[in-house]
Amino acid sequence: MAHVFRNLVVAVALLASGTVCLSQEKAKPPVPSIYPVTWQLKFEYGKPARVVVNVPGRSAPQAYWYLPFSVTNTTNRERMYFPVFELVTEEGTIIRSDKSVPTAVIKEIRKEQGNRFLQPLIQAAGEFRLGEDETKYSAAVWAEPDLRMGHFSILVSGLSGESARVKNAKGEDVLLRKTLQLNFFVRGDEVYPGEDEVNENALLWIMR
Predict the structure, then answer these.
(1) pTM (2 decimals)?
(2) What is the pLDDT of residues 24-63, one digit of tens each?
(3) Residue 159 class from Cβ within 10 Å (0-12 exposed, 13-18 middle, 19+ buried)?
């Protein structure tokens, strides 16, 4: 089941970028190089977690999922860092992170992670200096899409300079970028959301 879902995520990602159509069924999508062929940032992450927060202006606590991470510029020069995190649900819906996330949510995540250096994703973007001392700590955040998460993936782009040009269904040039796909599975159901263990499946790199 897990490998079927991973294949679905790749297909959804390619369809979303307009690079696949029925007339191209036999064409193989580009695959990233096994070894980095251009600059690539050092990316480390923790397991996704659920947090419930009392948000000002809301009558009831709100549930969010987040992916804590750190990123370090270990390349040969300063870079511009513009991270994009997208959650792909079991049904194939793609949700971009950090849409109207209240400050209270970031504060609660910072407390849960015990990391006072953790900053909102938008603040982590921008000029990225070299070295371990310049490591950025952040978290990608989503309003809970479903009480029953099941299989889901998180697509992370902005970590590598590798890219490839392909033709889309209209014959137009489309630029694909090396993207990290993280795959997870939560057993259990919606009776006790957030209490079941988050299991990680194999990650992979795709062009998207």
Answers:
(1) 0.85
(2) 444 577 889 877 789 999 999 999 999 999 988 888 999 9
(3) buried
pLDDT tens, 86-97?
999 999 999 999
Q: Positive or negative CA dihedral for 49, 52, 57, 58?
A: positive
**Long-range own/partner contacts, residues 116-125 (CB < 8 A, 24 or more apart):** 118/68, 121/83, 121/85, 121/97, 122/98, 124/71, 124/81, 124/83, 125/81, 125/82, 125/83
20 contacts 29 by C-beta, under 8 angstroms: yes
Pull the structure tokens for residue 14. Answer: 């390619």
The CA distance from 44 to 144, in Å, is 23
Q: Where are the domains of the chain?
A: 2-207
Q: What is the distance between the alpha carbons of residues 198 and 117, in angstroms, rounded to a whole number?
A: 25
Closest Cα partner for 31 from 176, 159, 183, 158? 176
Q: Is 3 exposed, middle or buried (0-12, 13-18, 19+ CB in 10 A)?
A: exposed
Tokens 């369809």 map to which residue?
Answer: 15
